[in-house]
Amino acid sequence: MPRRALITGVTGQDGSYLAELLLDKGYEVQGTTRNVDSESTRGLHRLVSERGGTVRLHESSLQNDDEVTLLLDEVAPDEIYHLAAQSHVGLSFEKPLETLDANAGVTLRLLEAVRTLQGRGRDIRFFHAASSEMFGRPTESPQTERTPFVPRNPYATSKVCAFHLVANYRETHGLYACSGILFNHESPRRPERFVTRKVTLAAARIAAGLQETLTLGNLDIGRDWGFAGDYVDAMWRMLHQEQPTDLVIATGRWHSLEEFLERAFRRVNLDWRDHVRQDPALMRPAESGRLVGDASLARERLGWQPTTTFEELVDRMVDADMQWVVGRS
Ligand code: GDR
């Protein structure tokens, strides 16, 4: 019998890479999405069918206890990868309560359902996608599993809550449950509401003469940016440790947004300074500090390390967007 995985938020960037990885490993993959009739759902079906696979979809926002219990009963997964979230930090300032429920509330509902099923003799492993945003204004650099959390926005606070709930259920109820403290991870599949994809798509459109300027918020920031495909591999490895442990997943390299702009625009022979404008309306009420992770423990425990450099990542994203833009014009 193949192992069966349930991926919440399967139509997102990470969900699609993880579905591909698990299908390649011979898993049966099922997933949840809020809307089965969306462009991202069609995109997922295209991607997995190109590999000769299928993903069975369940439409659910996971915001109702009974629905979650019924779903887990029906799917009967061996492994759950909980990726569904309100994942946009900026939006969390405007929708704090929705963010708290979507991130902490849903995680708790899933943990409760897993605990109930475990009581009936079922064995389910649970992965939760936590975030480097939990470190907020970090007290040390680089950040490790021992660095205190100082969340700076409702999104980060909701992830801290979910992180501790996962640890509680592991310690109190003996669940095989763990959180990946994931630093930023990007790809050509990243939606445009995140800054990296906004930049690479704009660079491609400007190069093709379809757009003149790119309007951004705060330029005085940077991140530890990795490739999403590497991070889903870490998720799978985390559910195959002997003991479930929370781990930092990061590249250990910090780059400024200006470096990202420089590389992306150079790739299409442009100077970003000629095209980028700033709009204070796009700035966040509070920014996190210098987030850069130390994934030594993940390397030691999982044998995991990133395979993609910052430069390769930016080039890959710009090249994919150039292809996409040219293909549509
Ligand atoms: P982040 O990613 O908040 O790190 O969260 P995002 O790409 O949204 O922002 C990164 C930084 O860029 C600045 N910025 C802008 N951001 C956006 N989105 N749009 C802009 O126009 C813009 N201009 C400047 C932001 O102020 C910020 O400092 C991501 C998400 O995937 C989370 O879900 C995840 O947990 C963390 O990464 C790790």
Automatic annotation (TrEMBL):
UniProt keyword annotation of Endoplasmic reticulum present: no
Principal EC category: lyase
EC number: 4.2.1.47
Keywords: Lyase, NADP
Cofactor(s) recorded in Swiss-Prot or TrEMBL: NADP(+)
UniProt catalytic activity: GDP-alpha-D-mannose = GDP-4-dehydro-alpha-D-rhamnose + H2O
GO terms under biological process: 'de novo' GDP-L-fucose biosynthetic process
Sequence ranges assigned to domain NAD(P)-binding in this UniProt record: 6-317
Gene Ontology terms, MF aspect: GDP-mannose 4,6-dehydratase activity; NADP+ binding
Similarity annotation: Belongs to the NAD(P)-dependent epimerase/dehydratase family. GDP-mannose 4,6-dehydratase subfamily.
Protein task: Catalyzes the conversion of GDP-D-mannose to GDP-4-dehydro-6-deoxy-D-mannose.
Name of the protein: GDP-mannose 4,6-dehydratase
The species this protein was found in: Maioricimonas rarisocia
